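Um, can you check?
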Amino acid sequence: MSHDLIALLQQLEKTKIVTDADVLTLRSLVFGDGHVSVSEADAIFRLNATDIDRAPGWPDFLMEAMTDFVVRQTLPFGYVDEANAAWLINHISADGRVETMTELRTLINILKTARNSTERLVNFALEQVKLAVINGSGVIGRGRALQPGVIGEAEVDLLRAIMFACGGEDHFAISKSEADVIFDINDACRGADNHESWTLLFRQTIANHLMFISTYETPARDEALRREKFLLERGDIRAGFGNLTGGAIKDAFKSVFGGDKQDRLDAEWSDRAQVSQAEIITASEAEWLQARIGRDGDYDDNERELMSWLAAECPQIHDSLRPLINAA
C-alpha cells in the first residue's frame, strides 16, 4: 500500500468525513496500478466500519474495489474460493448478518461478477433474505417496513438475483442447500399475503434442483487455473493475448479447450444424454422431496403447484412420489 494512500486513510479516519473529492482520490490511488492488494482491501473495509460521514460515491467505490479484489486478483480469474469467501463474510457481517446495505450490494455484485463461487458464499447471501422474511429484520428491511412471515416482491427479486447470479439462469443448477433455504422460507410464510411472484420462483427453484443439468459447465477451479496459466505463458490474456498471432491463438485455444469438430459433436450428444438423465427424479431426490414437502401434514398452494408441474413435465418420476403427487 502506497504512502499516499496510507496518509489519506489516516486523514479520513481523523476528520471522519469522506467527500466526493476524497473518493476520486481513493479511486486513483487504489486502481491506479491495476491491482487491489490485501492491505488496501483491509484498509478500505476498516474505513467503511468507522463512524464517519461518507459521500454518495462511497458505496460504488467500495463495491468495485471489493469485487476487483475478491474476483479478479487471483488466478484463476473469476473464481471465489473458500479463503476469499471467508475473508469477505468476516468483513461484512456480525453474528451471521450483513451490517449495511452497501455491504449487501457488494456481496451481490461479487456473486454476479464471479464465474463460479463457493456454495458457502451463495448460502450466506440467501440466509440474509431468509432472516428478513422470517424475522422481519436485518439490513434488507432498513428504510422500509417488513412484516415477519411475509415475502414481498423485493425479497423475491433479491432471491432470484442471488441464486442465478453466477453464470446466469441458463447454466446454473440449484444446489440442495439452496433448495432447502427456499423450502424454509416457504414454510415460514405459508398462508401469508405473499407477493404473487413467489409461487413461480418457488416452483422454478425446486424443479431446477430436481431436474436441471447445465448445458454449459463452468470449469472446475483447478482446470480453469491450468487453462489460464497455459494462455498466460503465451501472452497476457487480460491484454488481448499480448503479441500472439491469430494462428497461435487458435492453436492455443484448440490445445486447451479442444477444437475438433467431432469432439464438439460428441460433446453435444453427451450433453443431450446428460440432460435426459438429469430430468429423471431419482430415489434420493424423491426421498429429499418427501422429507420437505407437506411437513405439517398439509400442502400449501405453492407445493401443489410444484407437484402438478412435476407430474406434467417430468419424464420419469420415482414411484415413491406417486402417492405424494396424488395427495397434493
